[in-house]
Amino acid sequence: MKRKLWFYILTIVSLLVLLMIILLGFSLANAKLELSHSGVHQRLLMPVGTGAYMAIRNYAGSGDQAFIPGYLDGPVVRRQGEDKWTASWYCEDRVYTQEGRGAKLDITCAGKQHQFPLGPAIAATQTQNELPARLVVLSDIEGNLTFLDAALKKMEIVDDQGNWRFANNQIIFVGDSVDRGRDTYAVLWRIYALSQQAHAAGGKVHMLLGNHEQYLLLGKLKSAHPEHVYSAQQLGGYTNIYASDTIIGDWLRKQTVIAKFGNVLFAHGGINPAFVQHTNSVEDINQTMWDYWQGKSTGKLSFDIVMAQTGVSRYRGYFSASSTDSPSAKTEDVRKVLKAFNASHIVVGHTIVDKISFLHDKGVIAVDVNDDQSAKELLVFEAGQPNIVSIDVPRNINAEKAGAKKIRPFNVAESADRSVLWSLIKASYLQSKVPSPY
Hints:
Purple Acid Phosphatase, chain A, domain 2; six-stranded mixed β-sheet; 12 helices; 20 strands; globular
């Protein structure tokens, strides 16, 4: 009797597996491939019903003889001794390499000149005794170089050539300068170059890591632009171009996740009130981040304070529409945080707001206006006071999202498309192996 039961069970399971294989084969036989207008594979579209498709993102960085007009990605620069370096970059449809010496790299791509300073990175600042006379706050740039350059010029931080003209004043990027936009590497080089120019003029550029900088360094591609993933693949792979032996990768790993100037705290997500009983030290929180990038043991609690869903990079509890992972904090909870850190305000990004907002009796200042419907404004501290400045510089996010796409049939009988399928499966598997919680 038992043998018959097992026989029936195995027969049913076998039939179900066979049915799934048949359905998968049918789906692949009728699948389509979505490409950017430049020929980069974006998604595999699998039919799941009449006119309905399941979209599978392509993390493999493949394409159909892709040509991306005017696009420069990189350069990926690695130091070789005191002043010698090697560089590689992607321009439009191919990779270029160069070896050299000195403190700068000049590149011509698509008829346009680019210069990159290769001097030593300026050390990150954790704390400062007082706020500078003028401090401009930028947040959630997300690879949008066009917006960044326009905002810097509008605020007279740079001149018409993009060079620092902000004297001994300072700017701070409150996380998520990367991802989503195609120009992630260009934004990072822009901030790197500005930090050197500012330092020479007596000013300062501060760079906080948000959750997307952490995604980037860990190789999590969930929000990376497909064309950036493609060019990164041509340059040796996404994790390779941000490795710790590159100028940009090394510099990023040395940045902070929290900073304090005078009585003002800055963190991308915020400080969870539940954590203040365990730490009230900016230095300790940043040290945990640095230890993590160096592969040192941090301990679960220290790790959670920095990188977990409710850590300083991802916390959303200051907002009423917070997620279940970040229960809404009350004003008294915010006061507890501020008291523990001897602060009057905490400036946060990460959660989009309609306009720069003062929350919880002005204890929280929310500055993430990275949305086409949000107000075009920035936060500026002048003589110790926070002020909202209108800049009338659009983000134009939806314009990029609405970029032209191409759809072509996916032919599993063709070896090229089978290679695409295999690389997609492999890349998706590797993404699933990125360390928790990312």
